[in-house]
Amino acid sequence: MYFAALLARTEDGWEASDMELDDVESLSDLIDLARSASVDDDTVVALIEQEDAWFGVVRVDGEEDPRYYVSNASAASRSSYGSMLTDELLGKDEEDDELDELDLDGTEDGEDEVIASYPDGGPADRDQEDDDEDTDDGRDVRAGAEPAPAGPLGDPRLLDDLGVSHKQLMTLDGDALSEIAESLGATEVLEAVR
Questions:
Q1: Helix or strand holding residue 177 (H, E)
Q2: Residue 54 burial (C-beta neighbours within 10 Å; 0-12, 13-18, 19+)
Q3: Rg over CA atoms, the chain
Q4: For the sheet containing 43-50, what is the strand order?
Q5: In sequence order, which residues have a C-beta less than 8 Å from that of residue 15 and are 6 or more positions away?
Q6: What is the pLDDT of residues 61-97, one digit of tens each?
Q7: Cβ(6)–Cβ(45) under 8 Å?
């Protein structure tokens, strides 16, 4: 089970709102949701957690690039919302995956496909054997297939200026979101939406 909330900084402190994850299908949806909760383009912190397995923090400051932190990237990468964050942090791009699946054999411009037959399988089969994507120990070594590390991933300093030091953020576990909210001075507003 997930819990997610948006904390929007205002002149008077923080405002919290429950984040409906059913409406979030991509990381850009999450960023748009955070920006829409912003008061006068001030800071918005999106907090997501999955039952003590991992938590994620997304910080959006106006139109600046968002900043991300995930407490346990390996655990997060196995969940739908966590994988959006880990994929972004590891540089995995869905568009790249789609391009990798395209069959660009020279026939896409209307050229005739050249078909050759080799009794032993020929050079194409030998090249295929050389391009095996798995190592001897079974790891997938394709570009973009880098596994998520078992531990923190992202920018641990994203809340330093708000009262949560990077050291504190990296050692949080259990009810991490409550501890973050306490350091931000937003405990009451976060608990109101929990």
A1: helix 176-184
A2: buried
A3: 22
A4: 13-18, 2-10, 43-50, 54-61, 67-70, 153-154
A5: 7, 8, 37, 39, 189
A6: 999 999 999 999 999 999 999 999 999 999 986 554 4
A7: yes
